[in-house]
Amino acid sequence: MKKTILSTVLFLMVTAAAFAGGFEGTWASKVKGQDGADMDLTFVFKMEGEKLTGFIKTPNGDIPLSNAKLDGKVLTFEIAFGDMTMKHVCTMKDDDTFSAKVEGSPMGDTEMIFKRQK
Is the overall model pTM greater than 0.85, yes or no? Predict the structure, then answer.
C-alpha cells in the first residue's frame, strides 16, 4: 500500500514538472492594440527549481509575471502594468501552442494563441 501511494505521488510530481517544462521557453503572439494595429507580444517562461517564473518583453523593458500557478496543462498568472493587473489563464495544446484568456487588459477581455519560438 505504501509503495502504491509513493508511486502515485512521484508520478504526479513528474507529470506536473513535465507540464511546467512544456511552458518553459519563449512564446509569441499578436494582439490588437488600442489603435487597432497588431502588437507583437513575447512571453518568456523558465523553471527555477519547481517554480515557473517569467516575464513579458515590452519596448519599455521586461515586466515580470506574478502569482503563477500550474495545474496540469493550465497555467495562471498576472501581469501588473501601471495601475492595471491583467489575469492570464493559459492552456497548453497538443500542437506546441497554448491559448491564453486575458482579463483586465486596456483592450478588454481577449483570447490569444501563443506559438513557441525556436
Answer: no
